[in-house]
Design a protein that fits this description.
The complex is a heterodimer. Chain A is mainly α. Chain A has helices spanning 3-38, 43-58, 61-76, 81-106, 110-118, 123-154, 165-176, 179-208. In chain B, helix 3 crosses helix 4, helix 4 packs across helix 6 and helix 7 (169-180) runs antiparallel to helix 8 (185-212). Classes of the chains: A mainly alpha, B mainly alpha.
Amino acid sequence: MTSGDFALMGEAALISLGLALASIFLGTLLALVITGFAFAPAAPLRVFYRTYVFLVRGTPVLLLALLMFYTLAAFWGRISPYVAGTLVLMVYLSAFIAEVVRGGVLAIPRSLWDSSRSLGLPRRSVLRHLVLPLVARYSLPPYLNICVMAVKASSVLSIISVWELTMASREIIERTLDVYRVLGVAALFYFVMCFAIDRAGRSVERRLAVRGFAGERP
Amino acid sequence: MGQWLAWAEAYGPNYLEAALWTLGVATTSAAGSLVWGAALFFLRMGGSGAALVDAYVQLFRNTPVLLPIYLIYFGFPLVGLVWPAAVCGGLALVLQNGAYVCEIFRGSYKAIDRVQHDAVMSLGLSRWSGFRRVVAPQMLVHALPALGNQSVLLLKDTSLLSAIAVVELTMQAKVLTERTGTAYAPFVVATAFYLVMVTAVELAFRAAQNRVRWR
């Protein structure tokens, strides 16, 4: 393994990170919409939510990727593997994030709903001043786990020919047979990315911490 | 409908065999992970190996499972260990899931009230029988939901063994796609198999939880 290979893997790691961050962003947006369905007054929307979460969470990422790649190809012809890969991860993450957000909403104590209603707050302010700040605090720790999961899941895209860190490692291994060193470097890159996301999230968590609030870390 | 029936008749046996592989790898690795996770947990509690176990757990929690899969499948033959692909993949799954199981055990150990440990001592139970009769049963109750989640994740991760040519469900679906030229029907069928298996695991763990719940 040469320094050129190392640089190549660094480049590939940035692509992995890009895939993960883009799909976390898009997945979170999609999850917020979907979570809205979970609390919708219309029963079909709630059924849709449950079916969506069941299907996406019960399917391995790799199979989801294969399904979506073939489906997307059938409808739109050739599309960039990076676009397709981001869409796959977006759908995969959205189901997990939606469950986390739903859990956060359910964790809001009943008394707070009652008091906000008794104050006569309009729906918008309830959402802005009650739901949003509380759910952000309740959901952040499990949300961070999902962000780490996103980085790890991006490696699966290598099997369906997306060039990122795992794919680059496999190529270099096939060329040099330097299995241990290449995989060691790949592990190092993944570790740094996951660890950085986790640390960044925890610093946000500390910034959001409110004294006396149940979600506060001791 | 008739088309699907003909299809099921032609390829049903392939899927059933592949599903058995998936189940076999998943249950064997789950059992292995439980043993390995428990070993790591005892090592972690022992004191001297704590830092090492922590480093191991952090490493495996922050790297994708495909890396150990490739490490064992491509790396071990270089040092003379030529194992079947399913064994390589299973071992990789055990190594990673063991790390998670260790964390689950540690969490459920911490959830046990201090008073219980004091009670064990005041009853004059030995360390081992105190653990076996008082601590371990309570740990089980705390750990079951998390173990259920982890089992589902493990079951789904067996699909990654298709990357090293183990003919489990995902690989079978891929092979059939290429052989029959149908775009995504084989994947839909494989998904249905996974959903059934995942649901079965979830129901089994829910039943187990109901049996051990406090009364």
